[in-house]
Amino acid sequence: xxxxxxxxxxxxxxxxxxxxxxxxxxxxxxxxxxxxxxxxxxxxxxxxxxxxxxxxxxxxxxxxxxxxxxxxxxxxxxxxxxxxxxxxxxxxxxxxxxxxxxxxxxxxxxxxxxxxxxxxxxxxxxxxxxxxxxxxxxxxxxxxxxxxxxxxxxxxxxxxxxxxxxxxxxxxxxxxxxxxxxxxxxxxxxxxxxxxxxxxxxxxxxxxxxxxxxxxxxxxxxxxxxxxxxxxxxxxxxxxxxxxxxxxxxxxxxxxxxxxxxxxxxxx
Length: 268
Fold this sequence. Notes:
Elements: E1 5-9, H1 20-28, E2 32-34, H2 45-50, H3 60-72, E3 79-83, H4 85-95, E4 101-105, H5 117-122, E5 128-129, E6 134-135, H6 139-146, H7 152-162, E7 166-167, H8 168-173, E8 197-202, H9 210-219, E9 227-232, H10 245-258
Parallel strand pairs: 1-2, 1-3, 3-4, 4-8, 8-9
Antiparallel strand pairs: 5-6, 6-7
Helix pairs in contact: 1-10
């Protein structure tokens, strides 16, 4: 059976397991769901937190090339679903005609859209480790900036299962703390021949505010390629992992169906 692949790309401070519920949901609808981690990422978040050194040198170039190779490896062009930095990569790839369609959830900003102040506030000497190569979040920081619309108990559970340190090099590439943003933090907003793109924001997001996603959507305004925006009220940056994840996942499934992207390709 020719099943349509869906490649899920996680963002900074999260492990690939952050997509586990999504992968199960998409697979139950017939899609071939894949959640490839970052290069060198261990099988569980706890393992990464104990030995995070392999993530220390990862930058936006390496991540973009890593996922471009994965997406290009399929006979059937995949759907790309990315969260945060993963959303930026998803936009970069679909803009380069890599992938069939893309969904960017609470995406890091593309092109010349300013980076919100929140990530820079997280980058403090107290939160750096492994010879300054990694930036960690405390459970309290995670709850305040990442999972601010859920209770402390749920936030702590999410932290334990999914949260890992972020590479300082990657944050630098994104322009944190006044750094010059990487040339890879771009998307071809004018490519009229690309596949459809869905942008999603949480209106309670403190890490990547809804205003950033709206600014991204506005940049695509002159393109004749399909670009849609969905805003979820009272949802934080944790909207892909917290107790409301299914509302977001099911919206994406419905959007794919409306755009004619089916789980199974018709036999030729």
